[in-house]
Amino acid sequence: MGLLALSVPAGAAAQRTTTSPTTKAPTRTPFSTMVDRARKLAAAPFQPAQKPLSDALRDLDYDGWRSIRFRPEQAIWADASPPLLWQMQLFHPGSHHQRTVEIEIADGGATSPLAWRTDRFRYDPPASPSLADDAKDVGAAGFRLHHPLHRPGVFDEVAVFLGGSYFRILGRHQMWGLSARALAVDVASAQGEEFPFFRAFTIEKPAAGVGAIVVNALLDSASVTGAFRFVIQPGAATVVDVDATVFARRDLARLGLAPLTSMFQRGESRRSVGDVDDFRPEVHDSDGLLLHTGTGERVWRPLRNPKQVGVNAFVDDNPRGFGLLQRDRDFDHYQDLETRAERRPSIWIEPKGAWGKGHVELVELPTDDEYQDNIVAYWTAQTPLRAGTSRSYAYRLAAMLEEPAGGDGRVTSTRSGNARSMGRTGAAEQARLFIVDFEGSELEQLDETQPVTASLSTSRGVLGLPIVQKNAVTKGWRAAFVFTPDDGVADVRLALQLNGRTLTETWTLPCP
Q1: Which of 466, 462, 468 is nearest to 483 (CA)?
Q2: What is the DSSP letter of 343?
Q3: 188: which DSSP letter?
């Protein structure tokens, strides 16, 4: 399905199907059932309320909530015969996770609710055992899926669905980092962001020996409803194939599809933020946005922790892919044995079908700490989704440590500093010196005798003559230039060329 699938009224009746003795009615799938539920939800007034939690559950601090632990021996399908390659554990409601979800299991064409039982949990100190009584009728806040990712018979976390429409995916040798979401609505807008949430899930019980699992989800909010189907295939890069149909309750000009949420506090170009006093050189879950455009250009945008909210739009037509990457995999650049930031996954989005015209939007929020996600990236179609209409689309999401296929000559670091203080005599007081390093197999084969040049441009301000030189340490190439700003923000772009042929992806950054 493509993003430009025909829009239909959300409340429209389903097309009638005539049957005869030789014609079978279409088989209902968990996903088609979710689509019907989402359509009906969109035609009715939004109902946000659900049974409230007790004060004791609602007032739990983070440590208290974490001390309520699911008993692994109680995992769903742990006692299946024959054994399955999947197990599921539930999250207890409380603290920040006050909304509960419906969970059903589809098995052999039949669907049944998953019973909620507090005896599946341990209430370790500082949590009180009395919390089991408070939670006996409320249901789960979410769930996580386990699979033998590294060794046969040892079940590792692969996917987590918890909070709003958030979900997180892990591949082999990866540590938790950035998150994906089903939808983003009005991010960084004047009226404030709206957070859609999953109301219900139907999880399809996998057959013995099957390495993939299917999760169907029903999404709701004041502005939009939706049905989502996630086919999760674990591996070195865990891949999720997503099918979605969304229904608008109101006009949605800033509907973010395939959104990703991450954290960037500081990196190689800015080692200190605010009053931070930290032994770690860099702190981030992702360090850049990568785009593969419909024209075949590869664009790298380093992430920033801005002083003010920053919103950048990268206009495209039928994008080939985009994602938030953790490109820096050197432990020495983080020095953190707890977070292991060098093992945090990149997430890459590949649209299926024609997504048409629109833009990838990058939102960067200022932050002084590492505990709040401040980076969001998503696709927004040029054609708004109107009230009473729907849109269907599909994409593939991959959580990986490696780079997406299809490119050489990548940016490996971006550094900057005051040009005058770094020895550039005659530079204006506000001028900045930028150092951008590129690496790649073809670049390594070129020596300093080759006429490698910089294609450098800016939408405003003044650029100093760039210097391009072979980097004898990395075997790649380095470009240096000075940018002197005027009164506005400039879009600066840089790529390396050899005899007019582009060798690298395009580096871009708003300046100053």
Answers
A1: 462
A2: G
A3: T
Query: What is the number of residues in the chain?
Result: 512
Is the whole model's pTM more than 0.90, yes or no? yes
* Contacts with 9 (C-beta within 8 Å, 6 or more apart), sequence order: 388, 389
Nearest to 396 by CA among 348, 445, 454: 348
Kind and range of the H or E run holding 55: helix 55-58
User: For residue 37, which phi and psi values (nearest 5 degrees)?
Assistant: -65, -40
Could you give the CA distance from residue 236 to residue 249 in angstroms, rounded to a whole number? 40
Neighbouring residues of 103: CB distance < 8 A, sequence distance ≥ 6:
90, 113, 114, 139, 140, 143, 200, 201, 203
Q: What is the mean pLDDT of each successive set of 10 residues along the chain, which is 512 residues long?
A: 34 34 63 98 92 94 96 97 97 96 95 97 96 96 98 97 98 98 95 96 97 98 98 98 98 96 91 75 97 97 95 98 97 96 98 98 95 96 97 98 92 92 76 95 96 96 94 96 92 97 97 85
Question: What CA dihedral angle connects 122, 128, 131 and 132, to 10 degrees?
Answer: 40
Token representation of residue 356: 């048409």
Query: Do residues 102 and 113 lie in contact, with contact meaning Cβ atoms separated by under 8 Å?
Result: yes
DSSP 1-45: --TTPPP--TTPPPPP----TT-PPPPP-HHHHHHHHHHHHHTS-
**CA separation, residue 34 to residues 4, 39, 120, 171, 243 (Å):** 21, 9, 28, 28, 12
By the 8 A CB rule, do 378 and 360 touch?
yes
Fold of 410-511: Immunoglobulin-like (2.60.40)
Residue type, 385: L
Distance CA 202, CA 218 (A): 9
Report CA torsion sign: 121, 124, 126, 132. positive
String of DSSP letters for 223-292: SEEEEEEEEEE-SSSEEEEEEEEEEESS-BSSEEEEEEEE-EEEBTTB---TT---S-S-EES--EEEEE
In whole angstroms, give the CA distance from residue 71 to residue 75.
7
